């Protein structure tokens, strides 16, 4: 840095000020600018009035809805220090953490892979909220823990109520601290053995299986070959003779024989063929 503000002496004062800050500590200041974009809020910090050094990103303004509308230029704030960069002359702040110190401390103490217990507090169309044992209340949501749909179960389901119910006791694996909403992202399915991996262990490529058609799509059909295990039969693999649409050959609920042509463990993808089972299929 050089030539910014009051020159070299100003730069040195800025660096000394920032180096004295500690991540996790609190600082106060005045909102200098409110950007209606991804930039969030700029703050002039008490103790260094020369220029704004603090920034509060949109994710750290508040855990309540529409936080940007609640912050105005000239407003006094208290925020927690998230990161300090003396070289760039910048400190990242969180107002949300300062507003909810008990919640922030609880979430910050969690570690990836930790097993947490709690009670299903609410089932929403986008996921499930969990009231965690020993966790504080959330200022907005019915629980501080959240399980997204993909993390509810290894098996396919139409509604979260097929997997859990309100009031049910659960154990979940902690995935991450979601600072956008101030919640613990959890996985319920991580507590179960992945049925696909078990299936892959016992099923080599080339094996013929019996299954039932569950879905028709423009480029093929899905066939359930085991509990919770579905594989795709591409359109070209439905019959020896070309077909324009899957319904020309099979329908939902039909019992079929298929051959395993590919097992992708990492992506949990099973590819099947109907035409390779018997040359008589047409």
From TrEMBL:
A Pfam family recorded for this sequence: S1
InterPro entries: NA-bd_OB-fold, Ribos_protein_bS1-like, S1_domain
GO MF assignments: mRNA binding; structural constituent of ribosome
Protein origin, superkingdom: Bacteria
One example of a Gene Ontology biological process annotation: translation
UniProt-listed SUPFAM superfamilies: Nucleic acid-binding proteins
Domain S1 motif: from-to ranges: 24-96, 113-189, 206-275
GO cellular component: cytosolic small ribosomal subunit
Keyword Transcription regulation: no
Signal peptide: none
Keywords, sorted A to Z: Ribonucleoprotein, Ribosomal protein
PROSITE patterns in the cross-refs: S1 (PS50126)
Keyword hit for Ribonucleoprotein: yes
Family designation: Belongs to the bacterial ribosomal protein bS1 family.
Alphabetized PANTHER family for the sequence: 30S RIBOSOMAL PROTEIN S1 (PTHR10724), SMALL RIBOSOMAL SUBUNIT PROTEIN BS1C (PTHR10724:SF7)
Function: Binds mRNA; thus facilitating recognition of the initiation point. It is needed to translate mRNA with a short Shine-Dalgarno (SD) purine-rich sequence.
Name of the protein in question: S1 RNA-binding domain-containing protein
Species for this entry: Streptomyces sp. NBC_00093
């Amino acid at each position: 840095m050089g030539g910014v503000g009051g020159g070299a002496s100003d730069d040195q004062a800025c660096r000394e000020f920032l180096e004295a800050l500690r991540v996790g500590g609190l600082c106060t200041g005045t909102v200098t600018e409110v950007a209606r974009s991804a930039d969030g809020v700029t703050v002039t910090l008490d103790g260094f009035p020369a220029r704004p050094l603090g920034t509060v990103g949109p994710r750290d303004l508040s855990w309540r809805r529409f936080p940007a509308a609640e912050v105005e230029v000239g407003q006094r704030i208290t925020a927690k220090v998230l990161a300090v960069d003396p070289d760039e002359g910048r400190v990242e702040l969180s107002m949300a953490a300062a507003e909810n110190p008990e919640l922030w401390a609880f979430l910050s103490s969690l570690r990836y892979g930790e097993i947490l217990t709690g009670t299903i507090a609410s089932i929403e169309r986008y996921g499930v909220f969990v009231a965690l044992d020993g966790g504080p209340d959330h200022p907005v949501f019915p629980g501080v823990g959240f399980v997204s749909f993909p993390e509810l179960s290894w098996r396919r389901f139409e509604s979260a109520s097929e997997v859990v119910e309100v009031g049910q006791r659960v154990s979940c694996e902690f995935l991450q601290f979601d600072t956008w909403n101030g919640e613990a992202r959890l996985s319920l399915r991580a507590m179960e053995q992945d049925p696909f991996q078990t299936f892959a262990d016992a099923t080599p490529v080339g094996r013929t299986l019996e299954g039932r058609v569950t879905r028709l799509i423009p480029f093929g059909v899905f066939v359930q070959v085991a509990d919770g295990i579905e594989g795709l039969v591409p359109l070209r693999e439905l019959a020896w003779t070309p077909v324009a649409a899957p319904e020309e050959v099979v329908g939902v609920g039909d019992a079929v024989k298929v051959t395993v042509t590919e097992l992708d463990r990492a992506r949990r993808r099973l590819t099947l063929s109907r035409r390779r089972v018997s040359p008589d299929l047409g």
